[in-house]
Amino acid sequence: MTTQTTSAPPAAPVPGKARRAEAPYTARGTRPGFLWALPATLFFALFAIVPLIMVAVLSFMSWNGLGSPRFVGTDNWQRILDDPVMIKSIWLTLLLTALGVALQTPLSIVLGVWAAGHQRNRAVLSAIYFVPLLLSSTAVSVLWRALLDPNFGIPARMTWLFGDGNLFGEQASAIGVLAFVSTWQFTPFHTLIYQGAARAVPQVLYQAAAIDGAGRYRQFFHITLPQLRTSVITSMILMIVGGLTTFETVLILTQGGPGTDTTISAYYMYQKAFKGFDFGAGSAIALCLVLAATVVSLIVVRVSGYDRMRSSTEGVS
């Protein structure tokens, strides 16, 4: 005779207790604690926040690098705001930044989407194309300065295209060279951003579009581009901040010339501080660049709605 044992039904979960049990896992499992961010926070504070505060204080001082700084109030700010070279440098900085965004954005999107595919020899061509990304701005500027030398470079051999060959002798051609060199160097970086974003687009969207009869171009404009929206905004912010703080390219290629026709704000800050030994005015210009980059970035984020976007894959609400 066999005895049949019946197990008691499991107790119904208590809702409050379940929530209390899951809360620590949700809080600790998805986001690390503050201690994980402490080293990066200290590093940022030591090498970014503290120097920025020192520059802000120095912008109200008169100091030539020797002796003790002397407080002069807003004299440095009044001088740079009344300086025609400073006003001109602001417009040149905005122009170069706008050219960088206009040239690099479409190139980066097209190349990034292409590099995300499975074309033949794609990996080899991508590796060759990304070589400029491995070089420093100084090395790139020295390279193109030699290649575009009016006496021994490419323009001297192709006078039928470049005229007298002196691309640095006129403002328009000099600005064109600066925009071209920046595009050649930094487009691969933004291409990497779009390459990663394009690979994250769900393939089911393309499959559904193909079933509906959408071709390659319609898929690009109606699926790929909308899915790259957040990457476009991120890339544009990086381009704007980088354009406002460009320095090495101008220093090596044009040195602000001809005259002051390519003297952007960052280079003018260098001239004031390290050539004219007017560190107060140089600090004021530097602080203006920081404020301008911050304001423009916030405007882009606000207008684009980037601050209201939420992730749909990481569970962050």
Task: Chart the SSEs and their pairings.
Blueprint: H1 15-30, H2 34-58, E1 61-62, E2 70-71, H3 75-81, H4 84-115, H5 122-129, H6 131-134, H7 137-147, H8 154-157, H9 159-162, H10 171-199, H11 203-211, H12 216-227, H13 229-244, H14 248-253, H15 265-275, H16 279-304
Antiparallel strand pairs: 1-2
Describe the fold and architecture.
The chain is mainly alpha-helical. The chain has a domain at 91-256: MetI-like (MetI-like fold, Orthogonal Bundle), CATH 1.10.3720.10. The chain is built from 16 helices and two strands. The chain has a two-stranded antiparallel ribbon with strand order 1-2. Strand 1 (61-62) and strand 2 (70-71) form a beta hairpin. Helix 2 (34-58) crosses helix 16. The model is unreliable at 1-7, 17-27 and 312-317 (pLDDT under 50). Keywords: Cell membrane, Membrane, Transmembrane, Transmembrane helix, Transport. InterPro entries: ABC_transporter_permease, MetI-like, MetI-like_sf. It is found in: Cell membrane.
